[in-house]
Predict the 3D structure of the following.
Amino acid sequence: MANLEEILVSEQVLQVPYSYSAGPVASRFLLALKEEKKIYGIWCAACNKVYVPPRATCGQCQAEIKDWVPLSGQGRVESFAVVHYAESIQPLPPPYVIAVIKLDGADTGFTHLLGEVDEKKLKIGLKVEPVFARERKGHILDIRYFKPI
Ligand SMILES: [Zn+2]
């Protein structure tokens, strides 16, 4: 006989619209995507390290960093995954490829989408370049994806 006195816990997903302030460093980065179709890194002189995406303080020496470095946008795939499952927060319907890209002139990996790529030709070290959205909003998806060169 079923226990009808049990207390059930139901797992649900709550989706809430929100706005957030990107702050001065991320704002400059995102506005350059929007206005210039250009990817900038930020350089720590003490460590001689270029961060992309940029950050306000160096992850190694904790110094405040303000020196912007324009990058070509080209880089190489350091790792990747082919996504085959769907979640409401994902940027694209599956399947799609997400990758960590080391941009030329940067010392950190930049996570973004790959497009126009044959999954069979995916490999570490694949040379890629950004494809910008026609209409840009100051959002990370102003870069639609990176494609093989
Ligand atoms: Zn540093």
The radius of gyration is 20 Å. The first helix runs from residue 23 to 36.
